[in-house]
Design goal:
The complex is a heterodimer of chains A (707) and B (121). Chain A is an alpha+beta fold. The radius of gyration of chain A is 38 Å and the shape is flat. With 121 residues, chain B is of the alpha/beta class. Chain B has a single domain, classed as Rossmann fold. In chain B, 45% of the residues lie in helices and 20% in strands. Chain B is built from five helices and five strands; from the N terminus they run E-H-E-H-E-H-E-H-E-H. In chain B, strands 2-1-3-4-5 form a five-stranded parallel beta sheet, with helices on both faces. In chain B, helix 1 links the parallel strand 1 and strand 2. In chain B, helix 1 packs across helix 5 and helix 2 packs parallel to helix 3. Chain B starts with a strand and ends with a helix. Classes of the chains: A alpha+beta (707), B alpha/beta (121). Chains A and B meet through helix 1, helix 2, helix 6 and helix 7 of A and helix 1 and helix 5 of B.
């Protein structure tokens, strides 16, 4: 946009200069009405004002200048004479153009009546040859010419492009033209060189080749014609549609004789093939007789091949239209795949113990297949998030009307796919967040205007993939979070003590605390006690996280980070003594060793230096209360969540593991540093660590320890 | 190597539009204010394509095209003329003189890029 503004400024500057030139030329012309050089100057000035005007969006100026330009063109060609009257009229018009330029940057106003009056006067000079409608039509033409999307059903065209010998004379190179055609769709290009003379007769500056292009495209014939627009006069071009996909005529050709004979059992398939191989192709027969040349046959074959391929594709497309399946069936499919993955893990483990090459081979094959099966069945459960997004449009429209706010709601990444279960559970938190943005975020138009913002607020909802996660972002350009107000409220509600020292970020995080609401006046929309804490806990339950960024007066951005799927994840299998644990691989950054030396070095604090960075670590042995037997060298699995890095100390890192997540059941639902369990190949159970919760837990413990 | 294009126009705003649009597409773009200036510049540095306005002082577009086509080194250089007149006569005069293609003003940047790609590849 900034670039266009700069262009507009440049145009205005130039137009003012041209008007000055114009004035000078007109005054000279008054004394020398016959001087065509001066007429030329006047014409060129008008010409540029008009031409550039239309390009930089000064349509009014372009339209107004058109008639004047035409009049001076006629004077140039001697059809009209310069008169004193015409000169004063032109001077008046120059003033009018100046007024239009001024008005375009907010200085003064243009009298439409005056514009009209002057236009009419110039039109009077034109003897009906060129009418003022032209300019309007030309400008209209510009507006529509590019917007016209020349689209239609997939069609195959046969394009013959036979340039005349003198094609090169005007500097035309035919190769880019063919390249342009190829870009339009799927194509086969056959080059004919039958016109090529013997070497001694060959003129290197003449074009002897012609081309045949078989092109399958959704673009219309006009787009194809347009490619040849500069060479129409210097070549013979024919464009024919040979196959249109939209036509659903049944194939009229019946089986070939050979096929019928096979069907009737008169001959066998092999006999037919042998007979067909002995037979000569029609192309070969014609070639031998000298009726056609090789390139001709090649191009006919290309056409046949391409049309066949396109028909096959169309048939395939018709067959693969979607089917509806009850969600429960998909759930059981995924469960079964989960079982399969578990069994496969057992098989792999068994094969490894047996050291039997054949068995290992089979196990690897099963592993490959089950991984593929896992991906596909997960894929089936994936839905584009747009289905959830679309209902927010209505929500924003209704709510903003109710609250008297003007909001532009945009969505991005609607085709980002997420597991169906995640999508289902995401809807309510999103509704809440968007309501918050409308109610607390975006200010009323008059408030916005007073603080120098556009009266219309913006809320952007976007979704994007990021590794094994999907990021959903709700961004508004509203008032932002007021840290002081939040702090005051939190103190009032007894969430924090008045003397608590918190960073701004920590203060903002308080809105996630249970029972928090900052709206001073409770509206029907939000502030009914269902707070951000509910949003946070439902996102947490999906294994996701909520991040908040806000600047007072500028806006708020809330980012939800969600796992792609809930059923099977890639995990890192680790051991502590005899116990196995799984750490979600998405969070793992690297593994490093922790020697006794390093431990001593840290003087009892749980810190390790990794690549010059101090990373705190959590000894899982302590967290899970596993009795001693610490090996001399332990392993630290470094994980990353948001900006924070935390290491988890384990005895041994086993390796990557396809983890089928099993819920822990109701009895154990309050254990919150474990998000589930999985069954390993040997039948034992491994707990899946909730990295985020573990991190929080140790932060709390640290805090408590300091007090 | 990126190709060099010469934009010839007496209007600074059009020149800037052409330069900006084509540089963004990775071409090297020079500019000249009229036909005479263009010829002088092309003597010092070879160009792969010329985009010229038709109405210009000193030496107009048609004269420039004629002069270039007479020059052995520019006989096959693609030349695009910018014309406000969609009228056939001006276009014909340009083609007669040896223009390779044309763009009717007003045009959009995308149209300019399409024509340059069509002729330069």
């Amino acid at each position: 946009m900034g670039h266009m503004d700069a262009q507009k400024d440049l145009y205005r500057e130039e137009a003012y200069e041209l008007l000055a030139t114009l004035e000078g030329a007109l005054l000279e012309l008054e004394h020398a009405p016959e001087d065509l050089e001066i007429v030329g100057r006047v014409f060129r000035a008008m010409h540029t004002i008009k031409g550039s005007g239309a390009m930089f969006g000064f349509d009014d100026i372009a339209a107004f200048t058109h008639a004047i330009e035409t009049v001076y063109d006629l004077i140039r060609s001697g059809e009209l004479k310069v008169s004193a009257d015409l000169i004063s009229l032109t001077l008046a018009s120059a003033d009018q153009i100046k007024a239009m330029l001024d008005a375009s940057q907010g200085m003064g106003e243009v009298s439409a009546a005056r514009t009209d009056e002057l236009s009419k006067a110039f039109a009077g000079y034109l003897s009906g040859a060129a009418s003022e409608g032209d300019a309007a039509a030309a400008i209209e033409g510009l507006k529509t010419c590019c917007d016209q999307e020349d689209r239609q059903p997939l069609t195959t065209y046969r394009i013959r492009f036979c340039p005349h010998k003198d094609l090169f004379v005007n500097g035309t190179n035919p190769i880019p033209l063919i390249g342009e055609l190829r870009d339009l769709g799927e194509s086969t290009v056959v080059c004919h060189m039958r016109g090529l003379p013997d070497l001694h007769e060959l003129d290197p500056e003449s074009c002897y080749t012609s081309w045949e292009i078989i092109l399958t495209t959704t673009r219309g014939i006009n787009t194809i014609r347009d490619v040849f627009i500069f060479v129409e006069d210097a070549s013979d071009i024919s464009i024919e549609a040979v196959d249109v996909m939209a036509e659903t005529e049944p194939d009229p050709s019946y089986k070939k004789v050979g096929e019928i004979l096979v069907d009737r059992g008169a001959i066998s398939e092999e006999e037919l093939k042998a007979a067909l191989c002995a037979q000569k192709r029609i192309g070969e027969v014609l070639l031998e007789k000298g009726v056609v040349d090789k390139a001709e046959v090649a191009s006919a074959l290309a056409e046949q091949e391409q049309v066949r391929n396109m028909r096959k594709k169309r048939a395939a497309a018709e067959e693969t239209s979607s089917i509806r399946v009850p969600a429960a069936k998909l759930d059981s499919l995924v469960n079964l795949v989960g079982e399969l993955v578990t069994v496969q893990a057992r098989l792999t483990e068994f094969a490894a113990r047996r050291s039997d090459a054949d068995l290992t081979g089979i196990a690897e094959e099963v592993e490959r297949l089950s991984a593929e099966l896992r991906d596909i069945s997960m894929g089936i459960r994936m839905l584009p998030i747009g289905t959830t997004f679309s209902k927010f449009k209505r929500l924003v429209r209704d709510l903003s009307a109710e609250l008297g706010k003007d909001i532009n709601f945009t969505m991005e990444g609607e085709d980002t796919e997420l597991d169906k279960t995640v999508i289902d559970k995401l809807s309510d938190p999103l509704v809440h967040l968007i309501r918050n943005s409308i109610d607390h975020g975006i200010e009323r138009p008059e408030v916005r205007a007073a603080s120098g913002k556009t009266p219309m607020g913006t809320i952007e909802l976007s979704a994007a993939h990021s590794g094994a996660h999907v990021l959903i972002r709700i961004k508004d350009d509203g008032a932002g979070l007021d840290a002081d107000a939040i702090r005051a409220k939190a103190v009032e509600k007894g969430i924090i003590t008045p003397d608590a020292s918190l960073s701004d970020k920590e203060v903002r995080e308080l809105i996630f605390a249970p029972g928090f609401s900052t709206a001073t006046n409770v509206t029907s929309v939000s502030g009914r006690g269902v707070g951000m804490d509910v949003v946070k806990s439902s996102i947490d339950s999906l294994g996701g996280s909520v991040e908040l960024a806000s600047e007072k007066g500028v806006g708020t951005t809330i980012t939800l980070k969600l796992p792609l799927t809930l059923a099977i994840i890639d995990g890192l299998l680790v051991n502590i003594a005899a116990e196995s644990f799984v750490i979600p691989l998405g969070a793992v950054v690297e593994c490093v060793e922790l020697s006794e030396d390093a431990r001593r070095h840290a003087h009892g604090r749980h810190l390790i230096k990794v690549r010059d960075e101090i990373v705190p670590y959590i000894p899982l042995r302590e967290v899970f209360g596993i009795a001693d037997g610490t090996p001399p060298i332990e392993q630290v699995v470094i994980t990353e969540l948001g900006e924070a890095r935390v290491g988890f100390v384990v005895d041994k890192v086993i390796g990557q593991h396809q983890t089928v997540i099993k819920s822990m059941g109701h009895m154990l639902k309050n254990i919150d540093n474990v998000s589930g369990a999985t069954i390993l190949g040997d039948g034992s159970v491994a707990l899946i660590l909730d990295v985020y919760k573990l991190m929080q837990q140790s932060e709390r413990m640290e805090g408590a320890g300091q007090m | 190597m990126s190709k060099t294009i010469l934009s010839v126009d007496d209007s600074a705003s059009i020149r800037q539009l052409v330069v900006f649009t084509l540089e963004k597409e990775g071409y090297v773009v020079m500019s000249a204010v009229d036909g005479r200036d263009a010829l002088a510049k092309m003597k010092t540095k070879p160009v792969d394509m010329v985009i010229t306005d038709l109405n210009m002082p000193n030496m107009d577009g048609i004269e420039l095209i004629q002069a270039l086509r007479k020059d052995q080194s520019f006989r096959f250089t693609p030349i695009v003329m910018l014309t406000t007149e969609s009228a056939q006569n001006k276009k014909d005069a340009g083609r007669q003189a040896g223009a390779t293609g044309w763009i009717v003003k007003p045009f959009k940047p995308e149209q300019l890029i399409a024509v340059v790609k069509r002729l330069l590849g």
